[in-house]
Design a protein that fits this description.
Blueprint: E1 3-7, E2 11-16, E3 19-20, H1 25-32, E4 42-46, E5 52-53, H2 55-67, E6 75-77, H3 82-90, E7 98-100
């Protein structure tokens, strides 16, 4: 599985592993569907371990940003990952919300 959902007392952490690309995004999307039904106070998205990232992965992240509405802003971990930064720079995009560096 390319994404792990860690449920803590008052927050969730989505940890994406080596691949966030066209080959993994469907399974990731299916895994994340359960979050739409949960009350989210805080949501952290950890991209620090991603090694293969493409536009399909970017679409999934943008989808998460638009659909999941936690009480507090999304927290992005690993935006300084060179693979993530390269694709975001290519499309001249920034992921909105609070950024946390790993």
């Amino acid at each position: 599985m390319a994404v792990t959902i860690e449920r803590k007392a008052d927050f969730h952490i989505l940890v994406f592993h080596a691949e966030l690309n066209i080959f993994s995004v469907r399974d990731d999307f299916d895994s994340l569907q359960s979050l739409a039904q949960e009350a989210l106070s805080q949501l952290m998205i950890d991209l620090s371990a991603v090694q293969d990232f493409d536009s399909a992965g970017l679409q999934l992240l943008l989808y998460l940003q638009q659909t999941l509405k936690p009480e507090q802003p999304l927290r992005w971990i690993g935006l300084d990952n060179p693979v993530i930064a390269k694709v975001l720079g290519l499309f001249r995009l920034e992921l909105n919300a609070v950024a946390e560096e790993a």
